[in-house]
């Protein structure tokens, strides 16, 4: 288990003056140049927008956004994976590593809850405060959903540097 502190991230649109706009979503560092945003709002799914992430006092621009979603075994889950233009100085020196198989198994056990899944794998993550408003979850991404948990896990794991077992010969 990694005992380093949680490295929480907030995702922001870049304002015309280059500053960070209001926070759009919460996520966490999944690697030195990768941020994972569980159940992203639609505002984080637009590849034509310019984003930056706040990691403590550090602001890092986002180079690109990848989306993955699954609806399988009676649960739904989605993630946005943000590629950073440069490594975060807040990335833990001894990163947690996982495999595609371990991620898939943990996703199944936690019924798609990505915060619990990554915590179970040893990542120092802690979910943000829960919205108790009773508002329905934003499921704009359902049209992107696959019905194969391994394919979904590959979409969020294999593009990070800390995941093994993704390539087949």
Anisotropy-based shape: globular
The first-to-last residue Cα distance is 31 Å
- Name the beta content range: 25-35%
Q: Supply the CATH architecture.
A: Beta Barrel
Characterize the main sheet: 6 strands, antiparallel, barrel
For this structure, the CATH topology is: Thrombin, subunit H
The first-level CATH class is given as: Mainly Beta
Give start-end ranges of low-pLDDT stretches.
1-6
Secondary structure tally, helices: 3
The helix-and-strand class reads alpha+beta
- Order of H and E elements: EEEEEEEHHHE
Total count of strands: 8
Rg estimate, integer Å: 15 Å
Q: How many discrete domains?
A: 1
| pLDDT averaged residue by residue | 83
Helix content: 10-25%
Report strand order across the widest sheet.
1-2-3-6-5-4
